[in-house]
């Protein structure tokens, strides 16, 4: 049986091979462009075709342009983005030509030169063959313009590069006719940069618009209410003639108009016909994806050395997944790098046992989500899950950040830490029956392999071998196996064994069910939720019993307040805020209040501040104070003690710290008294 990964690599490789047959590398394009420029008898323009965001403009500006100039050629680069008329383009082109010299005279009189050039273009031909009768009184400017005209007329040694052809706002016919003038009349070398597919759509839309206007009668007008014709409608509206008010106008739908066009003109695209009049050769740009990605990573000044190293280590996946998704768009990659900037800050400085694994998981998850987001395929199907294992490893906190630009840092740290714990466990238990089932049950040759390993897992759970934090994952595996037809009794026995291990204090760890499968069956999903609820009930009861011993042990530590705070936070990890009081109330009743008061009397400021945080965590103000009546007496004792400490304290800051604790406890006392009345 062939390895699945090997098959995947072959498929990807074959796709690249097919791509290479059509697309040229940067070095190949440079050779072809040099040949085109150096050869005189070719009387046509050439086009470099590439998708939006593929990096072709970067290549042209930073590689191709410099290469041409190194051969003593003058290059004029003009973006057609937003150009609305030929006069505007001509003015921009010739002014750029003048400023190429950067002579002192030109630089000192740029605005005046621009005005003069504009006048020349408005009056004369695009090539400014003669000054005609233009009166230029400024002698200096007159000399500049005369010299410019003298040099611009032939422009034999100049290569013109027109970028963003498909984003030009003026008529395609006008812009192509203008460009063709440089090729045929001036004998110049012209390179056009475009997204050919978008250019094709634009030409076809403009051509169709003109054809539709030709088949619409004088007593007819178009109905623009039909959806899905945005670009076409734009051109049609721009050509719409005002109908006489006294004539009865008949509305014609776009579909009917298109049918008329098909009968009169045929349905063939005009793109190839129009393009071939000007463009002799099209070079399809194929960027060196890894090289471009690497350059963008290295140029990002916000990354430290380790950040760059981690990104570079995963560059093969980044490049191949971009190509596989048919989304070679470096704007998406720049978007990814911007998102990674903050995610890397969350990772930096944290203590992970499996640092490379965590970085890889975060990087790949973020990149996959960015591609899905930019292609409109990122689904919001999370329910209660925090991460989903599937074809792509999805992490909710990352996807939320990508979609909404807000990152829950604390949640991110918690989830990433869970990944670290799970990876450590996986390494230690590589041959454990849990991992054998997870990796191989769907490829097993016999039912015996599955049943034997399920029984082994059940016995291990009963002995408390597995960390409680892995229980949700194990339940998911058993339920997956159940969907293949295996009896649900195995999952029932597993739950029984897990509960027994918890109650007997054999199992350790924190129950944290933040990761769930994306279940195909609603029935299976409901089963999973039922098992988890039962497991949580048993776990919560166990933690209530355990809390008194643990909390008083913490009072023996120097950083006792931090220990208690972490314990309270980890015990809860609630999905809903109201779960806090259910799990830890009554809080003070579980503590030796006398010992606690003694610690507070002698504690440093850090412990006092953290204990105030503990109180806010355990006794949230927004909930019914009746929930805390059971430890009211203990709270009063503590409150009186804090008042006494405050009154006898000479240090202002410590007096303030005692006051904060006292006032927070008083709030509950007041609330409770009101409730009783």
Report on the architecture of this protein.
- This protein has 677 residues and is of the alpha/beta class.
- The chain is 63% helix and 6% strand.
- Helix 27 (593-602) packs parallel to helix 29 (632-648) and helix 29 runs antiparallel to helix 30 (652-676).
Q: In CATH terms, what is the fold-level topology of the domain at 26-194?
A: Rossmann fold
| Basic shape | elongated
What is the strand content? 5-15%
- Stretches with pLDDT under 50, minimum 5 residues: 1-21, 102-109, 119-142, 572-582, 671-677
- Count of alpha and pi helical runs: 30
Gyration radius (Cα, Å) is 37 Å
Number of strands: 9
CATH class of the domain at 26-194: Alpha Beta
Report on the biggest sheet.
Answer: 5 strands, parallel
Looking across the biggest beta sheet, what order are the strands in?
A: 2-3-4-1-7
Helix content: 55-70%
Structural class of the secondary elements?
Answer: alpha/beta
Mean pLDDT: 76
What CATH architecture label of the domain at 26-194 applies? 3-Layer(aba) Sandwich
- Please report the distance between the alpha carbons of the first and last residues: 77 Å
Topology:
Layout: H1 4-22, H2 26-38, E1 45-49, H3 56-69, E2 74-79, H4 86-101, H5 104-108, H6 110-123, H7 139-152, E3 158-163, H8 172-184, E4 189-194, H9 196-215, E5 220-223, H10 230-239, E6 250-253, H11 254-265, H12 271-276, E7 279-284, H13 289-299, H14 305-313, H15 315-324, H16 330-347, H17 355-374, E8 387-388, E9 394-395, H18 396-404, H19 409-428, H20 433-440, H21 447-463, H22 471-483, H23 489-503, H24 522-554, H25 560-572, H26 579-584, H27 593-602, H28 605-618, H29 632-648, H30 652-676
């Amino acid at each position: 049986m062939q390895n699945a990964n090997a098959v995947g690599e072959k498929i990807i490789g074959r796709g690249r091979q097919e791509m290479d047959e059509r697309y040229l590398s940067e070095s190949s394009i440079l050779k072809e462009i040099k040949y085109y420029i150096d050869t005189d008898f070719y009387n046509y323009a050439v086009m470099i075709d590439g998708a939006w965001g593929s990096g072709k403009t970067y290549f042209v500006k930073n590689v191709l342009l410099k290469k041409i100039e190194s051969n003593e050629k003058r290059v004029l680069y003009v973006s057609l983005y937003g150009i609305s008329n030929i006069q505007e383009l001509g003015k921009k082109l010739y002014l750029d030509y003048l400023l190429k010299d950067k002579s002192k005279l030109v630089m000192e009189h740029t605005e005046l030169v621009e005005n003069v050039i504009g006048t020349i273009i408005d009056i004369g031909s695009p090539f400014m063959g003669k000054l005609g009768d233009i009166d230029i009184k400024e002698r200096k400017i007159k000399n500049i313009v005369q010299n410019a005209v003298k040099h611009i007329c032939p422009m034999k040694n100049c290569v013109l590069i027109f970028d963003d052809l498909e984003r030009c706002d003026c008529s395609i016919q006008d812009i192509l006719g203008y460009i063709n003038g440089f090729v045929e009349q001036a004998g110049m070398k012209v390179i056009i940069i475009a997204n050919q597919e978008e250019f094709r759509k634009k030409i076809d839309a403009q051509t169709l618009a003109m054809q539709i206007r030709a088949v619409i009668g004088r007593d007819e007008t178009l109905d623009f209410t039909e959806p899905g014709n945005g670009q076409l409608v734009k051109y049609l509206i721009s050509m719409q003639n005002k109908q006489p008010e006294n004539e009865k106008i008949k509305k014609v739908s776009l579909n009917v108009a298109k049918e008329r066009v098909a009968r009169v003109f045929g349905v063939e695209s005009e793109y190839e016909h129009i393009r071939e009049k000007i463009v002799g050769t099209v070079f399809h740009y194929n960027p060196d994806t890894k090289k471009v990605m690497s350059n963008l990573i290295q140029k990002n000044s916000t990354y430290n050395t380790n950040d760059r190293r981690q990104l570079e280590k995963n560059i093969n996946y980044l490049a191949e997944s971009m190509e596989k998704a048919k989304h070679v768009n470096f704007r998406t990659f720049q978007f990814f790098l911007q998102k990674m900037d903050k995610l890397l800050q969350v990772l930096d400085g944290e203590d992970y046992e499996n640092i490379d694994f965590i970085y890889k998981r975060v990087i790949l998850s973020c990149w996959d989500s960015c591609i899905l987001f930019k292609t409109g395929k990122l689904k919001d199907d999370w329910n209660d899950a925090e991460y989903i294992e599937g074809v792509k490893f999805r992490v909710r906190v990352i996807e939320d950040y990508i979609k909404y630009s807000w990152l829950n840092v604390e949640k991110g740290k918690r989830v990433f830490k869970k990944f670290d714990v799970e990876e450590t466990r996986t390494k230690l238990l590589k041959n454990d029956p849990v991992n054998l089932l997870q990796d191989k049950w769907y490829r097993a040759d016999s039912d015996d392999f599955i049943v034997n390993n399920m029984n082994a897992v059940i016995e291990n759970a009963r002995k408390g071998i597995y960390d409680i934090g892995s229980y949700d994952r194990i339940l998911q595996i058993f339920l997956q196996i159940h969907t293949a037809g295996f009896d649900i009794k195995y999952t029932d026995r597993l739950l029984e064994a897990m509960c027994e291990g918890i109650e007997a204090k054999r199992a350790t760890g924190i129950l944290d069910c933040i990761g769930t499968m994306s279940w195909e069956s609603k029935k299976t999903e409901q089963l999973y939720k039922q098992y988890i609820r039962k497991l949580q009930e048993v776990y919560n009861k166990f933690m209530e019993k355990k809390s008194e011993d643990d909390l008083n042990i913490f009072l023996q530590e120097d950083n006792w307040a931090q220990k208690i705070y972490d314990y309270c936070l980890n015990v809860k990890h609630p999905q809903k805020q109201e779960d806090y009081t259910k799990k830890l109330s009554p809080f003070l009743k579980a503590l030796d209040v006398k010992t606690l008061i003694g610690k507070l009397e002698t504690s440093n400021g850090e412990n006092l501040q953290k204990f105030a945080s503990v109180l806010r965590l355990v006794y949230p103000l927004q909930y019914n104070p009746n929930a805390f009546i059971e430890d009211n007496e203990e709270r009063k004792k503590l409150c009186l003690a804090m008042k006494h400490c405050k009154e006898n304290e000479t240090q202002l800051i410590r007096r303030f710290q005692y006051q904060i604790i006292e006032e927070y406890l008083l709030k509950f006392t007041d609330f409770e008294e009101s409730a009783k009345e």
